[in-house]
TrEMBL record:
<keyword id="KW-0496">Mitochondrion</keyword>
<protein>
    <recommendedName>
        <fullName>Cytochrome c oxidase subunit 5A, mitochondrial</fullName>
    </recommendedName>
</protein>
<dbReference type="Pfam" id="PF02284">
    <property type="entry name" value="COX5A"/>
</dbReference>
<keyword id="KW-0349">Heme</keyword>
<comment type="function">
    <text>Component of the cytochrome c oxidase, the last enzyme in the mitochondrial electron transport chain which drives oxidative phosphorylation. The respiratory chain contains 3 multisubunit complexes succinate dehydrogenase (complex II, CII), ubiquinol-cytochrome c oxidoreductase (cytochrome b-c1 complex, complex III, CIII) and cytochrome c oxidase (complex IV, CIV), that cooperate to transfer electrons derived from NADH and succinate to molecular oxygen, creating an electrochemical gradient over the inner membrane that drives transmembrane transport and the ATP synthase.</text>
</comment>
<keyword id="KW-0408">Iron</keyword>
<keyword id="KW-0479">Metal-binding</keyword>
<dbReference type="InterPro" id="IPR036545">
    <property type="entry name" value="Cyt_c_oxidase_su5A/6_sf"/>
</dbReference>
<keyword id="KW-0472">Membrane</keyword>
<dbReference type="GO" id="GO:0005743">
    <property type="term" value="C:mitochondrial inner membrane"/>
</dbReference>
<comment type="similarity">
    <text>Belongs to the cytochrome c oxidase subunit 5A family.</text>
</comment>
<dbReference type="GO" id="GO:0045277">
    <property type="term" value="C:respiratory chain complex IV"/>
</dbReference>
<keyword id="KW-0809">Transit peptide</keyword>
<dbReference type="GO" id="GO:0006123">
    <property type="term" value="P:mitochondrial electron transport, cytochrome c to oxygen"/>
</dbReference>
<keyword id="KW-0999">Mitochondrion inner membrane</keyword>
<comment type="subunit">
    <text>Component of the cytochrome c oxidase (complex IV, CIV), a multisubunit enzyme composed of a catalytic core of 3 subunits and several supernumerary subunits. The complex exists as a monomer or a dimer and forms supercomplexes (SCs) in the inner mitochondrial membrane with ubiquinol-cytochrome c oxidoreductase (cytochrome b-c1 complex, complex III, CIII).</text>
</comment>
<dbReference type="GO" id="GO:0046872">
    <property type="term" value="F:metal ion binding"/>
</dbReference>
Amino acid sequence: MVRCSVEILELDEFEILHRLVLIPDPKIMVAALKDCRRLNDYALAIRFLEAAKDRCGDQVSTIYPYLLQELRPKLCELGIEELGYDKPELAITLGMEK
């Protein structure tokens, strides 16, 4: 089922992490963050942001700041930036990157 309206977008935990495989539009990301709040799953919101940053690939220095700029009101509402969780804490590099 394809959902066209962001307003009726109600995703569960699996859909938030796995169904949005590309970098979603900021409006869809806001809806997903609202769903994280609705599910009362703060950790999922953090993993969602980390996954979005990872999906930026080699364009992370240009795309991710834009996403944070567009998401800033919702991140402030949820308190994610105040805790510093807009940046991954335990990121492990495997040495496979160039």
